[in-house]
Amino acid sequence: MNTVNVNLGERSYAICIGSGLLSRIGSMLDEIVNATSYFFVLDENIELTYGKKAMDSCSVETFACVLQAIEKNKTAQSLGDIWSAMLTDECDRGVPVVTVGGGIVGDVGGFAAATFMRGVPYVQVPTTLLAMVDASIGGKTGINLPVQRRDDEDILGKNLAGAFWQPKLVVVDVDVLQTLDDRQLVCGLAECIKHAMLGNKELLSWIEKNVELILARDNETLIELVTRCVKIKVEVVEKDEREAGCRALLNLGHTFAHTIEPLPEQGLYHGEAVSIGICAAMSYAEAIGTFDADRADQIRNLFGTVGLPTRLPLPIAIEELVSSMKTDKKTVDSTLRLVLPTADGAEIVSEVDSSMLSLAWASVGATI
Predict the structure, then answer these.
(1) Global model pTM greater than 0.90
(2) What's the pLDDT tens digit per position in 262-280?
(3) What is the largest CA-CA distance in the chain?
(4) Is residue 188 in some structural domain?
(5) Are both 127 and 154 inside the same structural domain?
(6) Which residues contact 11 (CB under 8 A, 6 or more apart)?
(7) Rg over CA atoms, the chain
(8) Can you give the residue range of the structural domain that contains 340?
(9) Does the CA dihedral 169-170-176-180 come out positive or negative?
């Protein structure tokens, strides 16, 4: 088992990465939080498998709330459902929340933990690659809020309500990836590649060399991949816990991604939207001369090799996309900010050129 420590003073915690850890969850929880009962928030897809295995490992009483983990359920309604279930089960401030599932379950369950009775301890048990390397680390929790489109339809704005609430422990058992849907596995690789772009060329080369083993779900390779990516994110989180500075660089391409992910006609998962968003961000950076075209081609080719999209599934008007970008939570004082790649990492650009922005969207298939 590999252990990566997140050093945040009194909010410090460990991220445990290995194989066969689910059956040890109960003893790991007792060692860290030592409660008389635990409240689990479970993805319905793993309720009777990994969820049950984790709950059965506990020697104390357990309760559970089950979520259908899709973006349209990442809402205040689901948050309220968890609160209500915790009250029904007579949970108090001493009952920790344990989330078992992907990023949606972790985000909503974590937000419930952050707000129930003004905050209870929680533990993350991510079951998707994307959640293992990104969503479960760093204490970001949240839900989506309705935003009106230009055509007067409502869509859900990504993570527009939330809180920073650090977990007490993160347990990553790569065994669960053996049954993960192929598309979801590949989506996680989008965040891995993003991490590699943030000044970690060795990781990028390692991923390129190990693509076949990763896609074949070789356990040792997956443990190495997750550990490498976790260390990168942890280093950033330790420097900037609440995203006041360098942590914002982890949002590389995400302003583009969060604009297209909620659009039902595009049918994109988060990792797919991130892949397209990074491609748009690279095009913008190429146009202003801060990112090399050959390196951009290398990243696009790697996305294609692992099976990630580099263009929108369906064309959409640039004007609509630009309008939607202004609701992104990274917008400050009505000023759009982009996180763009550079030769040795990324940078935040707040003076956005509208023509370059249109060019970036056009490069991934948007239309005038």
Answers:
(1) yes
(2) 898 999 999 999 999 999 9
(3) 61
(4) no
(5) yes
(6) 139, 166, 241
(7) 20
(8) 194-363
(9) positive
